[in-house]
UniProtKB/TrEMBL annotation:
Name of the protein in its database record: TraB family protein
Source taxon at top rank: Eukaryota
Organism: Chrysophaeum taylorii
Signal peptide as annotated in the record: none
Pfam families documented for this protein: TraB_PrgY_gumN (PF01963)
């Protein structure tokens, strides 16, 4: 199995080949352009003890200016090592996960930055051979690094994907002060995407969908309404994007009680003592959670108009009541939440935050109670998407952040695509260096955009 691919001119013929690492065979090789014949460079299986034991990745680049590719091998158990020279000095740990090369100290010599997943450290190694320097000593499961100028000051900074911390952080050179670039569920890869831009990918489903129609960028933040981490993602996204419009999955009545105990449909379902369905409703959007309050506070703080995009809650309550009359209550007990951990509410909430798990719940609801599925999801997706599209057409905002329950994310995204929006490869806008924004002054009013559709 091939674990890592890198574009590099391996044979010096001025075309781009593909170097690879195959972890299962502990093999380094390359595909020669333009025929793409596979050629092995070295197979490390059965070699002496200090050879790589479980190759994970490779940095393939001309590091010393001799017009020949150099190969830095990253192994789960041994220090990073070059194919033809001694291993890098790594103090006390192995487990290198990723590396990038750039002139960190401005001496016109390429240096190497390495992320160590088990030690939670990121180090940079001087190309002239000095001891390693610390970029970050508390990067939680540092699994990917990128060397890029994030702040536009003409020197190279380091961006790290911290998988265990659910974030991508930039460390600013010099001094290596941390800036949180984005909150991302279990990020695996972060790479440069042009000047001052980054691309990232996650094996888990992204909480944020990014679409554009050519003049408006829409960031749909799918949340678990009972997750504090979801609120942090909302705050980070609004700080980073600085949108011209914030849309929330609320109507005027739910806005009025956004910080009160859940009532309406959520309370109705709870009164039926249908625990499994109530858990599903938590996901599907009837607990006005902290993420909405955060979005509203940010709107007041930045004076950003707010679109109350959801359907009138009384209409939804009526539709759900009608749907429940057509459903065999016994079927509702069959709705399972396999991600629910009885002994750990926090763990349950975080597991709830993946689109895969939410899709599983939605799929069960659709199969077992299609009338309810239509009332609480399909019809509301129609309303939310219609209001969002109308507001975009009216105001032509540069950027919009829409905060919705994760179960609505797929439906809204599909409806936007039918209206000419296309998905953008998940990427961060230029980072906005901001601290925690202060709370809005008391009495600061919201600027509300009237919804076009309410029922």
């Amino acid at each position: 199995m091939i674990n890592c691919l890198k574009a590099v001119d391996v044979d010096g013929d001025a075309d781009v080949d593909i170097a690879y690492v195959a972890q299962e065979d502990n093999e380094l090789g390359w595909f020669e352009a333009p025929s793409w014949i596979r050629r092995r460079i070295f197979v490390f299986a059965g070699q002496k003890k200090k050879m790589p034991k479980k190759l994970h990745a490779v940095l393939a680049q001309d590091l010393d200016g001799d017009s020949r590719a150099d190969f830095l091998l990253l192994d789960n158990y041994l220090p990073p090592s070059f194919l033809d020279r001694p291993p890098l000095e790594t103090r006390r740990h192995a487990g290198a996960r990723d590396a990038c090369a750039a002139d960190i100290d401005g001496d016109a010599v390429l240096d190497v930055v390495v992320a160590f997943k088990f030690a939670d450290e990121v180090l940079w190694y001087d190309g002239r051979g000095a001891q390693p320097h610390t970029v970050c000593s508390k990067c939680r499961f540092a699994c990917s690094v990128a060397c890029v100028d994030v702040d536009g000051d003409q020197d190279i900074d380091v961006v790290v994907a911290e998988k265990a911390a659910n974030r991508i952080s930039a460390f600013v050179n010099p001094g290596w002060d941390r800036i949180e670039v984005a909150a991302v569920a279990e990020p695996d890869v972060v790479k440069p995407l042009g000047p001052h831009h980054l691309a990232f990918a996650s094996r888990g489903d992204e909480e944020i969908s990014h679409l554009t129609n050519g003049w408006s960028d829409v960031y749909i933040v799918g949340t678990a309404h009972v997750s504090n981490a979801s609120a942090q993602v909302v705050a980070s996204t609004i700080d980073r994007v600085q949108p011209d419009l914030i849309a929330v999955e609320l109507d005027a009545k739910r806005l009025a009680r956004a910080t009160t105990k859940p009532r309406g449909v959520g309370g109705f379902v709870l009164s039926l003592v249908l625990r499994a369905l109530y858990r599903a409703f938590d996901i599907l959007g009837y607990n006005s959670g902290a993420e909405f309050q955060v979005a509203l506070d940010k709107a007041r703080n930045y004076r950003i108009p707010v679109l109350l995009a959801d359907r009138d809650i009384d209409v939804t309550f009526q539709r759900v009541s009608e749907a429940l009359k057509a459903i065999d209550p016994a079927k509702l007990d069959e709705i399972e939440t396999p991600f629910f951990v009885e002994d750990s509410l926090t763990a349950s909430i975080e597991l709830m935050k993946t689109r895969q798990n939410v899709r599983a719940i939605v799929g069960q609801l659709k199969d077992l109670a299609p009338e309810l599925y239509e009332a609480i999801l399909v019809e509301r997706d129609d309303v939310i998407a219609s209001n969002l599209i109308a507001a975009i057409n009216d105001a032509r905002p540069r950027a919009v952040v829409a905060v919705v329950g994760m179960a609505h994310e797929d439906g809204i995204e599909a409806r936007l695509k039918k209206k000419g929006f296309r998905e953008v490869f998940t990427s961060t806008p230029p980072p906005v260096v901001v601290g925690a924004s202060p709370p809005p002054p008391p009495g600061t009013p919201l600027v509300l955009v009237p919804p076009r559709v309410s029922s």
